[in-house]
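Late entry, written up from scratch paper. The run itself happened at the end of the previous shift, but nothing got recorded in the book at the time, so transcribing now.
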Amino acid sequence: MFKSGLGIAVLASVVGIAGCASRAETVGAASGAAIGAAIGGGTIGTVGGAMLGYGAGRSYDQRNH
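Output as recorded:
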């Protein structure tokens, strides 16, 4: 039950970010969250991965636009 709730929370946060983020930032956040969850870091790993991915997407946008 806890993992499904966590998945819903991550999905909701990615959808929220998608409303004001660029495509690269959104893809980075979603990919980072998926990798963080796959590694097995729990909530901290998932959120940390999402933040790193978002930052990578933001850097990509700044270099290419």
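The two ends are 42 Å apart (CA to CA).
(Scratch paper discarded after transcription.)
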